[in-house]
Structures are given as C-alpha cells and as structure tokens.
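Researcher: Hi, I'm a grad student and pretty new to this. My advisor asked me to get structures for two proteins we've been looking at. I'm not sure of the right format, so I'll just paste the first sequence and hope you can take it from there.
Model: That works fine. Here's the first sequence with its structure tokens right after it:
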Amino acid sequence: MHADVGSRLVIHGKQVGQVDRHGEVLEVRGADGGPPYLVRFDDGHETLLYPGADCELEHEHHGG
C-alpha cells in the first residue's frame, strides 16, 4: 500500500455487525509512501498503523 498525507483509509470490520473505521493519514513514515502511517480516525483516535488485508485506501469520486 502506498499513501500520501491526506489520504483516506478504511479498515473493514472483521466480524458481523462490526462497523468500518475511517481515518486520514497525517504522516507517512515509510519509504516511498509505504507504512507505517500515523492515522487519525474519524472518532479522533490517532495511531501508528501498519495496514493489513482489512485496510484499503478510500477512493474519492469527483464530479466531472
């Protein structure tokens, strides 16, 4: 995974009924956009994240 500062991430819930977590990349600490990432989730929690298989970049849709 390669992310930039300002990229949006989503971590999918692993269990039935568990909600997805959405956050914004505040810092990219790996080489060439690689992990780890300092992420602030929408609930205000910040953590250093090494994304797993349940994590992906959100794709923004721009009108055109």
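Researcher: Oh nice, that was easy. Here's the second one.
Model: And its structure:
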Amino acid sequence: MHIETLLALHRVRLADLRAQADAHRLAAMAKRPYELRTRIGWTLVEVGLRLAAAPKPSVAH
C-alpha cells in the first residue's frame, strides 16, 4: 500500500477515535449530576430513616 494512502487512513481513524472520545466524555459529564443527585437522595432517605427509628429519651419532670 502506498505510504500516502496509509497515512490518510490513519488520519481518518484518528479523527474517528477523537470524535468517539469526545462523545464519550460529553456523555459521562451529562450523566454525573444524576448520579450525584441519586446519591444525595438516598443519603437523605437513610438519614430520615435513622431519625425516625431513633428511640426518644424520656425526660422526667
């Protein structure tokens, strides 16, 4: 295969890989807030359950 043809094929493949990496990076960045929101939500649920289940000390008057 001629070297110019080989280099052209490599350049096309490189551009394709960079486009795929950019798309993956953008998708990962778009996904993060939902993961964080989910973790915060479940943490709040867990804290609420602990507060609801905690025995209340009786206070003598």
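Researcher: Is there anything I should tell my advisor about the second?
Model: You could mention this: The two ends are 96 Å apart (CA to CA).
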